[in-house]
Design goal:
Substrate Binding Domain Of Dnak, Chain:A, Domain 2, 4 helices, about 80% helix
Length: about 120
């Protein structure tokens, strides 16, 4: 566990608003994806709780269906971005930027769907 902390401490500060090099843009795009993923996971927790509450009030199965859908969506997201961007060796140094952008966009869209689930219960 010490190694990741040391790596974070040694990571240079990057001004993502003014990223100029491909490496900086790649790092910033990854940070944006990580941020979107954290938000989605937080909203997922609320959606899962809403599904469990609905299960207690009705015939059930809501949580299991939502969990199944989320697992399948994660597989879809990763496969879709790979389909769009192909393997890294085919794209060069811009690949992380493209891949992270795709992952972020789809993750933000899924977050919107999950928020809708929380608001409407389905």
């Amino acid at each position: 566990m010490i190694l990741p902390i040391l790596l974070l401490a040694s990571e240079p500060a990057i001004d993502c608003a003014n990223a100029m090099t491909q490496t900086d843009m790649n790092v910033c795009s990854y940070r944006e994806f990580q941020s979107a993923d954290r938000v989605m996971n937080e909203v997922w927790g609320r959606a899962a709780a809403a599904a469990k509450t609905a299960d207690k009030q009705g015939p059930g199965g809501n949580f299991n269906r939502l969990l199944d859908a989320q697992r399948k969506w994660l597989a879809y997201r990763d496969a879709q971005c790979f389909a769009e961007n192909g393997p890294r060796e085919d794209s060069g140094t811009i690949w992380p930027l493209q891949q992270n952008g795709c992952l972020r966009e789809l993750t933000e869209a899924r977050t919107k769907q999950l928020r809708g689930y929380v608001e409407t219960g389905n």
